[in-house]
Design a protein that fits this description.
With about 170 residues, the protein is α+β, with helices and mostly antiparallel strands. It has six helices and ten strands; from the N terminus they run ααβββββββαββαβαα. A six-stranded mixed β-sheet has the order 1-8-9-4-3-2. The chain has a two-stranded antiparallel ribbon with strand order 5-10. A hairpin with a 2-residue loop joins β3 and β4. α4 runs parallel beside α5. The longest helix is centred in the N-terminal third of the chain and has 18 residues. About 35% of the residues are buried. About 5% of the residues have low confidence.
């Protein structure tokens, strides 16, 4: 009888450890002096390329539509917002993995934002992804969408769809 009761508890424990593994066992720290925004979800720390985990920002040359239907450079605006967030300095990233281009995937913080991904999604310059099924930035995205901030002020093609339709232009 005790074995039957222990199995669900063990299963719940395993699921919780998996869901919170990045908080319980943080990855290697990536930090440096020279930090530069490459686009809305990628930055260079010294010579290391870092892509922010669990978000996707418009590509640098990607346009969006404003509330009146006119194009505006949302990809450039996303990079500008990330540049503002890292300008205060003190950028530190915890590696969570590696992408297919061998860039470090990480969650990053700066003096201006304890979570750069959350700040970009909440300001409307990135969307949350469902990496590992987490939906990590659902609250921030709902807030940006309801307030019509950034890309939510009008209409946009998701960055993944835009990359697919414009392969070779950005990534």
């Amino acid at each position: 009888m005790k074995r039957k009761a222990a199995f669900p508890l063990l299963l719940v424990t395993i699921v919780l450890l998996w869901a919170f593994s990045d908080r319980l066992f943080p990855g290697p720290l990536v930090a440096g002096e020279a930090v530069r925004a490459i686009d809305g979800d990628s930055l260079r720390i010294d010579k290391t390329m870092v892509r922010l985990a669990d978000i996707d920002a418009p590509e640098f040359s990607q346009p969006c539509k404003d509330r009146l239907g006119f194009d505006w450079p949302c990809g450039r605006a996303a990079r500008h917002r990330l540049a503002e967030l890292i300008a205060a300095g003190g950028v530190e990233c915890r590696q969570t993995g590696e992408d297919r281009y061998r860039r470090i995937l990480a969650r990053c913080a700066s003096r201006a934002a304890p979570d750069l991904g959350a700040a970009l999604v909440e300001s409307g310059y990135a969307i949350g992804t469902r990496a590992r099924g987490s939906g990590r930035y659902e609250f921030e995205q709902a807030s940006a969408r309801s307030a019509r901030r950034g890309i939510w002020a009008g209409s946009f093609t998701t960055p993944a769809e835009w990359r697919h339709a414009n392969s070779g232009k950005d990534d």
